[in-house]
Please model this.
Amino acid sequence: MKKETLNFIQKYHMAEQGDGVIAGLSGGADSVCLLRILRCLRQELGIELRAVHVHHGLRGSEADRDAAFSEELCKELDIPFKTVRINAAEEAREAGISVEEAGRRARYRILEAEALLWEKDGRNHVHIATAHHGNDSAETILHNLFRGSGLKGLSGIPPVRGRIIRPILWAQRREILDWLRAHGYPYVEDSTNSGTDYTRNLIRNELLPVITSRINGQAVQNILRAGEHICEADRYLEKTAGEWVRQHAVAAAAGNAGTENGKETAVFMAAELLKEDRIIRRYAVRIILRELGCPLKDITARHIDSVLELLGKGTGKEVNLPYGMTAGIEYGRLIFSRGKEAYAMPDSIAGPERSGERAAARLDFQVFPRQNQQEIPKNQYTKWFDYDKIKDTLSVRNRQTGDYITLASGGRKSVKSFMIDEKIPRESRDAVLLLAEGSHVLWIVGYRISEYYKVTEQTKNILQVQTDGGTDSGR
Model:
């Protein structure tokens, strides 16, 4: 296990000498295996290791047992340890999501906050190590397949995503258990993992065992291999479609987009796109929309299909897309347009008043890859967020019960408490704009952004949001 894990870490450049690694520790078999192996490898890798346990406030004494076990294990291994307590059930109610999903989000939020704190204390790079293994990746592929996912979702769990690393993703569950038993290493069992209440558990405990025992004993390996092939195909299609976009742009997408009637435009000859296979057309449209600043999280297959249907139509046909974008046909040209005011709220919703100025109720969104040494803007009306941390559709709205922001400590503060502390008049609070993902507020416009979504050294893609209350740009 140790040799294979070391090779896997080095293959994917998960950590360099001098880096910090925070291991998420539940006390279960997978996380115990991860922690013990990382401890064995820490000198060879030249890393400093810490562990964090998240107590979800569920399962009563069983959860207390897990926390106590994790703490004792870290004492035994001489690894700095911290327990963070949350109320996953309450967070689920506030966000309108399942308890399982609320717990997952909280774990990543807390681990990210701990990593940021460690970096502020002087550690150069801090990674978050999670104990995902091969079976988890196979389950993800099946789960996404049943949900109707595209190729990216069928690629499985990536070994590295931002600061998150998965050192034992190469291993299967049975290998982990065999290794722990062979060394006599104890771990705790989570009773909820054996149930079938959650879709994931149903796949893990019923579907995969049946497939393995009745169809093919190598099913997990074969699913993972298929995921690798799909990942390779996805990268190839992305590259091929990207080259087509660069070669055939009449007015380039991205930073060199043309302008027409105050709008950013990208123009392509419809006949040229029709010459390509349909899958290349689909990837090309996604790339064009992304490079014009449209977050792909809000682009569905229906949107892509509506654009492709334009190719066989005549001049004047047009479709509306998210974030104020349109695509239309004009004399054989496929024209994508993005207005400068990419997200307009109704006039009745006003922004906060500060220093005699009013932040207008319009937000402009752009997504772009982060460049080295890019300075984060420090102004009131332009903010940057880590785009890859956003999992659901964003909304621009006024406050609602349960809204909160994340603090530097990883804890949460309700928007109501923030407004009281900021001495925002009661009669003005319902007029303050919020940019939110569910109940988690990214930006109280004109005031503060959530620590969780802040840009860090590990950020790959940036979501820039600018109000038209200021012309300053972070780019």
